[in-house]
Amino acid sequence: MQRLTQLFTVLALVTNGIFAAGPDLNKAQAFAGNSANATHFLENKGQIKQTDGSPAPYVSHVLERGNTKIFLLKQGGIAYQFEQAHYPEEI
To answer: Does the pLDDT value for residue 15 go beyond 60?
Structure first.
């Protein structure tokens, strides 16, 4: 049950904005039907690394969507990472 609750939470985070302007069924169907919008987790087979470059064996699956990564942890938790580039101001 806890895993199901986590999955629904993750899907809600990933699909934010679909109904932002109100429920529009055509917009949602078009979004879901576009293969570029496919949402699925990839199993961690060693491609997930820690900040020091060593493997992260405690991560079971990862979902990457734009600047957001969501990690499913083997002990039943969820971790997330937001990425944003900061460019220095020109002098």
So the answer is: no
